[in-house]
Design a protein that fits this description.
By secondary structure, the protein is of the alpha/beta class. Helix content is 35%, strand content 16%. Strand 5, helix 5 and strand 6 form a beta-alpha-beta unit.
């Protein structure tokens, strides 16, 4: 498996999307908000113009939704863009990454010439982060972490910031009814968030970062001036105003996560790690066979073989609709 390969690989060699039931990408199964769809339809002809380089309307919407000053915002072509901007601007000598975690952290750090150190967490301890053993000058933390689902506390982030610059990736935070780390932003703490997963618009690419004001100025000068396209900006404005969509998403996840874990745990030989967000990490000794046989059923799971700190016995699954989840479990019962 390619070192930095991600989920969502639904395309063939010719670039055509196949008819897959995709549990490998952690996207909101509620699909496009009607408000977002209407906004896209109403503004489609606007692509004849350049997007607003300042993304003023989008910044205002982010500021109002998340109660953060616009001067601290960097709008992004997906949250992953932030790591490339950040490392190229700050150039830390060494970046510490608790693993297993999202591979794009390492890819971005190495692209900027940074040395990367892994901080290994233990499956026997549910991949919890032992701060007493962590020594770093710059550290990246997923909150919740992908693929383990672990959720570091605000107190732990502040403890880390006493000895390191901390980048907190909250790409899945909107799925949860918990406090964000955005209120902790300082010269030592930066927070990045994806909007593509929660609002089911990964094809548009959209995210933002909340950082210290001077760093925001540097990053905004470093990025492509039109990094967020016209339709992505419009979609973001509509999505952030859709309170009902967010309410329905959290209600769905609260119910479906419990159902998903209960059914997955009942399968023979499966070890499930407690999830927080809309995905579940689990282990089975026949994981590679499970993946192959599910593909025959046109179902995709995420192999974790290329996550540092895991191996081919680990799989990650998105939580989808009840109908889709039942289809997955029926297939797994036949295979296992």
């Amino acid at each position: 498996m390619e070192r930095y390969q991600h989920g969502g690989q639904v395309y063939d060699a010719a670039g055509r999307a196949g008819d897959w039931l995709d549990f490998s990408a952690n996207i909101n199964p509620l699909g496009l908000s009607e408000k977002v769809l209407q906004m896209l339809e109403d503004n489609l002809r606007g692509v004849v113009n350049y997007p607003d380089a300042q993304a003023a309307e989008l910044k205002r919407a982010i500021s109002q939704r998340y109660d953060v000053p616009e001067k601290n915002l960097v709008v992004l072509n997906g949250a992953a863009e932030f790591f490339y901007l950040y490392f190229n601007a700050t150039r830390p000598d060494c970046v510490t990454i608790p693993v297993p975690s999202f591979s794009e952290y390492e890819r971005a750090a190495r692209a900027a010439g940074c040395r990367v150190e892994y901080f290994f967490t233990d499956a026997a301890e549910k991949f919890s982060l032992n701060l007493n053993k962590l020594r770093a000058s710059c550290v990246i933390i997923g909150r919740p972490n992908n693929p383990t689902g672990n959720l570091i506390s605000a107190e732990e982030i502040l403890r880390l910031a006493e000895v390191a610059n901390v980048v907190v990736d909250e790409s899945f935070i909107d799925f949860l009814d918990v406090d964000s780390a955005r209120g902790l932003v300082s010269e030592k703490i930066s927070v990045v968030q994806s909007l593509t997963k929660i609002f089911a618009i990964p094809g548009l690419r959209l995210g933002f970062a909340v950082v210290e004001e001077n760093l925001a100025r540097r990053l905004n000068l470093s990025k492509d001036v039109w990094n967020v396209n016209f339709l992505a900006q419009k979609a973001g404005v509509a999505a952030l105003a859709d309170d009902d969509y967010l309410r329905r998403t959290r209600a769905w996840l609260a119910e479906e996560k419990k159902f998903f874990v209960e059914h997955l745990s009942q399968l023979c030989g499966v070890e499930v790690f407690p999830p927080t967000a809309n995905f579940v990490l689990f282990r089975h000794e026949q994981a590679e066979r499970i993946l192959m046989e599910l593909r025959h059923e046109k179902i995709l799971l995420r192999s974790c073989a290329n996550f540092v700190g895991l191996n081919g016995s680990y799989l990650r699954s998105a939580i989808r609709s009840r109908k889709e989840n039942l289809k997955l479990f029926n297939a797994l019962e036949k295979i296992i």
